[in-house]
Amino acid sequence: MARYANIIVDISHEKLDKTFQYLIPDNLQKEVSVGVLAEIPFGNRSITGYVVELTDEPEFDVSRLKPITGVKKGSIPIESQLIALAAWMRKNYGGTMNQALKTVIPIKQKTRAIERKTLKLLLCNEEALRMLALFEARHFTAKARLLRELIAEGELDYAVVMQRLHIPAATVKSLQMQNIVEVKVFEEYRNPVNHLKSKGYHLTLNDRQQAVADHIIKDLDAGVAKTYLLKGVTGSGKTEVYMELIAHTIERGKQAIVLIPEIALTYQTVMRFYNRFGDKVSIMNSRLSQGERYDQYLRAKNGDIDIMIGPRSALFAPFSRLGLIIIDEEHEASYKSETVPRYHARETAIERAHMNGASVVLGSATPSVDSYYHAKEGRYELLELTERVQKKPLPACEVIDLREELKKGNRSILSEKLQILMEERLAKKQQIMLFLNRRGMAGFVSCRSCGYVVKCPHCDVSLSQHNASGGTEGSRMVCHYCGYEEPAPKICPSCGSKYISGFKAGTQKIEMLVKARFPQARVLRMDFDTTRTKDSYEQILQAFANQEADILVGTQMIVKGHDFPNVTLVGVLAADMSLHVSDFHAAERTFQLLTQAAGRAGRGQEPGDVIIQTYSPKHYAVLTSKEQNYEDFYEQEITYRRMMSYPPVWNLLVIMCASEQEQKLISAAAKMVKRLKYHMDNEELLKDEKIQMIGPADASVAKVNDIYRKVIYIKTKEYQKLVLLKERMEYYVQDNKDFQNISVQFDFNPMSSF
Ligand code: ADP
Ligand code: ZN
Ligand code: ZN
Questions:
Q1: What residues flank ligand 1, with Cβ below 6 Å?
Q2: Angle, in degrees to the nearest 10, between helices 125-137 and 141-153
Q3: Tens of pLDDT, residues 640-650
Q4: For the chain, does the N or the C end have fewer beta carbons within 10 angstroms?
Q5: Structure pTM?
Q6: Total domains in the fold of the chain
Q7: 387-409: per-residue pLDDT in tens?
Q8: Would 754 be classed as within a structural domain?
Q9: 557 and 681 assigned to the same domain
Q10: Atom from ligand 1 closest to the CA of residue 240
């Protein structure tokens, strides 16, 4: 039994980001173990902290160590392996250990188990009948009613007794006291998927799917743990391959985690896994209640389930026999956390798998440039599915130059060709999806006379226009960073001109235009505004799947992995919106979105068509997605990344400093740059390395919520050098009064611009 516990206090502050040692008193020996949340004296108050290590080695003068006072009731202990993972995350992504521990523990609090109660008759039949006669004679009607029912049924559900038989709780209590009935209590797990009815599973993999599965299974059986990149065109049957691998993993007594972007985690997807694996599957996502989440955590921990499906955070499911991690749509930016620690689920999954001797399968039709690069370099093994299941052809793709449309006098957002095809599909009762690429487009309002743009007074961004009821009447301007709102101006505040208006069409505007142009069509819209309530997202998809609408208009939400067999036409209305954002991922995102959007067409019996409308018809992201040619895209993109020394060829660390006090921020950021230079010039490990540094510069959004932001960019080939610099800076800002009230955050290989 260890005598001392090393503890991370439950306060996220750089100064407290180290372990503190406490004595384990004899009476707590049983309760204190690695991962528990302990109650400890700290200064002159009592706080909590996570036990991360037990030891017999005192680090200080033992007489000065204070004892742990208790273990926090209702807290959830962290698995020791996840503590190790948290330490790795802290080192590689920054932030405090406390923040990292909070990340690997997906739920905060124990929730009361739900109870199911039953009533059981304790008397034999003869006695019961005698008692019933007695109750009836005395006009104890409620007691009599209950007893009669119990004589017939033997055991009754408590809820039924209360509701259907209208028996008051006092009556039950009284019969319980007389030893006539017994109340039995069962604890039950909430099960978010048990309302599903498994339809059973019948499907044989095709040769190519089988070959891919067999290849990985051979490695699994040989105990070889690896990371695979499964590149398979949309509709090539990747999900079936995943399920085959999972089945094999379970047969070997191991467990599997399946990561799916939250937005693609629909009823349809869950159902496929449920049909095959039934109650061995559970899901974890933000739509579950606190109690549901807690119970899924317990079911995973107790080994009641073998498969956990969920977004990024499901990676931390407390499985003890982890054998396989699958990351579907691995290119999705949502796998990178936007809060500290800013971890990437892909790298973290690989680390967790490594700790368990487990394997990782990354899957995508359009792999991230990062993953493909790693596959080419041999870090991942590349496997491919190059054809759609049952040899369904990929849709025919045409690029329309919007500048030419304008020259022809077509001022509509719908090109002539798209309109013709829409007419035709509507006549055939086939469905259409219209995709508006809104990434990087704020829907801002500007003055066409003087160029004035309406901006948020607290943040350095333009406000977006939201229309209350379709028209411009009553429309308001909203800041997507801080939520600030104001009514849309009718005249320009700067020059007084009345030509001030929303510049670009949003989904709402397009819905209106489409309805006007095709009055016979039923139109559904899916975007930020129509999916705010809990189930609205699923409802819209379901309605479209049930063919309750002919046209679905939407943002990127509609292109993610949904399978609508009756869709034969996809229109991309303005492909290049995402090309003009200040982020080196712009081309990659555009290629992925266009390819995924195109992949929605022709998944059923009828072949599909795709129309890509753009102002940049010659851009390689547009051209290669038209051809659905990933290789070509990749070659051009990696050449650019290599030339610019961008990830994945080099690694990039962004240090973001933020403060309300602008002057103080400017001087602190400058000092940090100086200090970084000092380390690069003097430190052995960094000296010879080619390191590029840019900054301090304004962040691309230089002010949010009245907080100013400056960024420093550092690029170098070796990731570990960046980790070293991060550690030096963490140390530098500690106890440094220049950095008081200045928040410093690190982001390794960021997925979005700063
Ligand atoms: P992906 O994940 O690559 O987009 P899916 O696994 O969703 O592809 O498969 C696309 C469609 O083809 C699904 O409807 C799936 O049920 C079906 N499918 C997959 N594999 C087979 C197969 N071997 N035989 C018949 N249908 C299949
Ligand atoms: Zn103006
Ligand atoms: Zn704002």
A1: 203-206, 209, 232, 234-240, 389, 563
A2: 160
A3: 999 888 899 99
A4: N
A5: 0.82
A6: 6
A7: 888 777 778 899 998 878 877 88
A8: no
A9: no
A10: 6
